[in-house]
Automatic annotation (TrEMBL):
It comes from Metabacillus malikii. Gene3D superfamilies: Homeodomain-like, Tetracycline Repressor, domain 2. PANTHER family: ACREF/ENVCD OPERON REPRESSOR-RELATED, ACREF_ENVCD OPERON REPRESSOR-RELATED. This is AcrR family transcriptional regulator. Residues 21-40 bind DNA. InterPro entries: DNA-bd_HTH_TetR-type_CS (IPR023772), Homeodomain-like_sf (IPR009057), HTH-type_Tx_Regulator (IPR050624), HTH_TetR (IPR001647), Tet_transcr_reg_TetR-rel_C_sf (IPR036271).
Length: 184
């Protein structure tokens, strides 16, 4: 039942954003609100579980990508930095700003992960520099550029684009890894 509650909550987030109600969740599940509260003390706890699940899925994907011997090192970096779990691939920026506005504690958890969990990427990029695949750059500045771009797409007001979060991540990585100049 716990998994059903989480999965239906993710569906409602995709459909209505974080403003869905526990009553709507109960109706969609065909159960009473009381039944939901047997498993979760609040909607905030449901959101917290979803965010923690999201982070764990990203970490698992990062690990799988990093260990995939069939991928070129640069492709590993690209895939890791564009990594989003399947159910969040269609997420738009409105949802991130809603999360920040209505569930700040849970947003902080996600934000901390995005800003501080860089060990896998750093290792890959350092290896790329050592192997001559990436020119020697200040990796912290690269990360700051990436995070700056992510922070920009968090705020829906700054962008009128209809691209999904995932599509924007891919565009950011294309520019960060390939630059803006034409190769001769």
């Amino acid at each position: 039942m716990k998994a059903r509650i989480i999965n239906e909550s993710i569906f409602l987030i995709q459909k209505k954003g974080f403003t869905f109600t526990t009553s709507e969740l109960a109706t969609n599940l065909g159960v009473s609100k009381r039944k939901i509260y047997e498993y979760f003390s609040s909607k905030e706890q449901i959101i917290e579980v979803i965010i923690n699940q999201l982070i764990m899925e990203i970490k698992e994907k990062e690990k799988d990508i990093a260990q995939n011997e069939n991928l070129h090192l640069i492709e590993k970096v690209r895939q890791i930095l564009c990594c989003t779990p399947e159910q969040f691939e269609v997420m738009d920026m409105r949802l991130l700003s809603e999360l920040k506005k209505h569930y700040y504690k849970q947003w902080e958890t996600l934000d901390y992960f995005l800003k501080k969990e860089w060990s896998v990427v750093m290792q890959l990029m350092e290896q790329g520099i050592d192997d001559g695949l990436i020119r020697p750059i200040n990796l912290q500045v690269f990360i700051d550029l990436y995070l700056g771009a992510i922070n920009q797409i968090y705020e829906p007001i700054t962008s009128q684009s209809r691209q999904t979060f995932r599509e924007k991540l891919h565009a950011i990585m294309d520019i960060l890894l390939n630059g803006i100049t034409c190769r001769q």
